Amino acid sequence: MVQTIIIVILFAAALFYVGRMMYRSLTAKKACGSNCKCGVDFSNIKPE
Fold first, then answer.
1. Which of 5, 29, 31, 33 would staple 39 via disulfide (CB 3.0–4.6 Å)?
2. pTM to 2 decimal places
């Protein structure tokens, strides 16, 4: 009985972990957090 409860808890934790990873990969951030300028909006800057 105790082994079954432990397995169910580990399985639920694994499902939560995989679901969280999928959710975080599908929701895009506005910027990546590094200096690569991939999330910067340059539409208001006029080229000289």
1. 31
2. 0.54
| Both tokens assigned to 44 | 């208001």
* Amino acid identity at 25: S
Taking alpha carbons only, the member of 43, 16, 42, 38 closest to residue 28 is 38
Question: Tokens standing for 13?
Answer: 């934790």
Per-residue pLDDT tens over the stretch 3-47: 999 999 999 999 999 999 998 888 766 555 555 656 667 777 777
| Helix/strand/coil (H/E/C) assignment for every residue in 22-41 | HHHHHCCCCCCCCCCCCCCC
Report the residue count for the chain: 48
In whole angstroms, give the CA distance from residue 28 to residue 34.
15
